[in-house]
Amino acid sequence: MGALLSLFVAMAHTPRLHFAQSPAAIRIRKEHSSTHGETPTLSALVASQCPSLFTRFRPAWWLSSGHLQTFYSAIGDFSNIDKVEYDRTLLRTVDGGTLGLDFTGPADPSELPADTPVVVVLHGLTGGSHESYVRAILAPACTPVVQGGLGYRAVVVNFRGCAGVPLTSPRLYSGGTTDDIRTALMYISATYPGAPLLGVGFSLGANVLVRYLAEEGDQSRLNAGCVLGSPWNFPANIDALESTFFRRTVYSRSLGQNLVTLMKRHLNSLSKFPDAPMTQAMAAVATMNRPLLTTFDDTMTRLCGGPSPPFPFPSGRDYYVWASGHDLLPKIRVPLLAINAADDPLVPMLPVDTGNAALSPWVVFSVTEGGGHLGWFEQASRFSAKRWITKPVLEWMKLVGNVVADTRRMKSLREADGFTKEEGRDDIGYVKVEGGGHVVGVEGQDGLLAGL
């Protein structure tokens, strides 16, 4: 018994927090100035408003390793908890693609003030709004304040072809392509012009969010961001993912097969584009059986994972180098909380592990000792677990949504050629199209590690 208790105590660690040498001074709303001062630093605000980042995360005793945490996140039954229902809006992009935006909140929008924060979610590799890790955040975030929630609105941006979104152009998505989230944010900011927009990205979606924030700088339509399980350095973490027989067989091949399964769902759609590189690559993809992730990316993603340029890339490796987000952290200009687990089997290499990581003054980087990939399960009762990560994410969302002042300098929108576009860019834009409907957010897509 004593040995078991010692093991449990050893599994409990306070997250390691990393800030820039001089954290940014944060403007806060007038109503909070008497409490926090006019311009407190990011580190001071986190210390006062995000206590979970300073308390120990204790993994459930039966989920003591990163592998077990990851498997439970992928195959656990979460269909009866964190239930979220959405109303889907379909947007047609300038290149003919389709984005699926799943909105959730009160049935009557007039129930909430115009400045109610909106959580904008980007999911993992082949996931969507149904994923349990998405619902674990959105269920409490959108619960009314009187019932213990934040009382926010939320929208999940489903990538092209994911979660039932039709594939209407010969182009896929990727971990480095930001035009689709940029387009979605144009629509969301126009729909809620007075609301703070708070980004939350998971895994692949986390890397997309980091790249968007770095590219936009102080003109970001997002007031703040939070990224969980970001893959950061693609080449280094892909190499680690395929460095052993176990990792290649269990992780890389499962992720590769999920992408093959996703593409096969859209065979009929691709037949409309017989000459497109995506359609030609599909002939090889259709014959694959549990390929390595690198095999799929070298066959398909490098060709059509985004607009041209920069696609196509000479190889999957070239795509990985371009897509990585770890070197972009110094360019962030809005508050960003990044959380990774040190025992994540999919992302063992983190920017802060090098000892000389360059962080923007706007970034706080938290590393938990346990948690796996999008797991972070702690014990709820004798034989049940709950996600610890919900607590620090909600504390962060409350801070950046209710306390931090809105300092965005967004570009104006205009109508051109039937699309809503951003000033200075003609290559991206949207028009709302028919379709969508009501979406019940429970587990709806199959495949091991499907949403990771």
TrEMBL record:
The active site is at S203 (charge relay system), D344 (charge relay system), H373 (charge relay system). Pfam families: Abhydrolase_1. Belongs to the AB hydrolase superfamily. AB hydrolase 4 family. One of its GO terms (biological process) is medium-chain fatty acid catabolic process. This is AB-hydrolase YheT. One of its GO terms (molecular function) is acetylesterase activity. Residues 117-235 form the AB hydrolase-1 domain.
